[in-house]
Amino acid sequence: MFSDKSVEDVILVTQLPRGAWCEGLALRPNGSVLISRLDKAELYTFDAEDPEAEPQVVHSFDAADASGVVGLCRMPGERDEYLALSSVADLAQVRFSRPIVWRVALGPDGGAAGAARVTKVAEIAGAGFCIDVVAASERVALVPDSGAGCVWRLDLATGAVDLFARDDAMRVAPGDGNFFGINRARLTDEHLWFTNTSAGTLCRVPVAAVADDAAVALRPAGPVETLATGLRHCDGLALTRDRRTVYTCCYTDGHIWRVNLGAEPGAAAAGTPKIVMRDLASPTLIDLRYVGDRPKVVVVCCGRVEMAWFHRAESNPWIDLATLTEAITITVEETVEETVEGA
């Protein structure tokens, strides 16, 4: 249970491949999850509600194209289709190159080995460290670039790339050991939400639809807002339906934050992070799905990551479980109030 009692239960649902470092998560329409590995260019699927489920490999990328997959997102609509962002990475030196976006369509058999149809969309030439991919429409994807401190817009039909947004809030923060700026991103009708790992911030930028140009789809509509600070080494990002609650996790210290953005009597100030779960083993992914009106938060942990620059809190009791890799499903309670933005 979360310490603020917003969680009903925490369920260990499956073991991921031993030693896997996972940095891509998408929730499938059949209830399963699609997960990618950063340390190996593979995609897996499994039933998040079945504690005995065995992860199945649905696609392995050619080693000439990728050494890992850093981001996943689901395409709009109810189809079992996704975008995957691969990279050639030297994890020990924290160097990433050759970002490529792929379209992934899973088969009707639920994603058995070899069922995925994977086609290359485009390589993003001249980029820094592209770290995530977000589908903005059937035609357009947004690609946050942690190294360049910006977000690229990718035309999925032509492969053309242009700058969507650049801001100091997306840059890597000064200081030794800071490698990642803008990290995970989520898109809603009104905002592009993102975290900055080294700055420890949750931000959003207003967006507006461009109805008369499918190749553009949307544009920034205002300055970046910083909603919360103090999110040290944050990774993963999930929003509730009403956009009043945001979850992210700390991959070094092993906890989950809840950021409340709504005004509730007696609650902490809006935007104040609150730790609601501790002592997880390197959580890197978090997402949220609704079953009716009931939300569930899915958290994926990587166990022990053996990198010289990857520093953990020594107080974490899971620190010695070097082989543990796990996925957790969390059911949360949410009070839904209708709000009208800008009113």
Strand and helix map with partners:
Elements: E1 7-15, E2 22-27, E3 32-37, E4 42-47, E5 56-60, E6 68-74, E7 81-90, E8 95-105, E9 117-123, E10 134-135, E11 140-145, E12 150-155, E13 161-166, E14 182-187, E15 191-196, E16 201-209, E17 218-220, E18 225-228, E19 234-239, E20 245-250, E21 255-260, E22 273-277, E23 283-291, E24 294-301, E25 326-332
Question: What's the short version?
Answer:
With 343 residues, the protein is mostly beta strands.
| Name of the CATH class | Mainly Beta
Supply the number of structural domains.
Answer: 1
Provide the β-strand percentage band.
Answer: over 45%
CATH superfamily: TolB, C-terminal domain
CA(first)-CA(last) distance: 35 Å
Could you walk me through the main structural features you see in this protein, from its secondary elements to its overall organization?
Strands 14, 15, 16, 17 and 18 form a five-stranded antiparallel beta sheet that branches. The chain is mainly β and about 350 residues long. It is globular. It has no helices and 25 strands. It has one domain: Neuraminidase (6 Propeller), CATH 2.120.10.30.
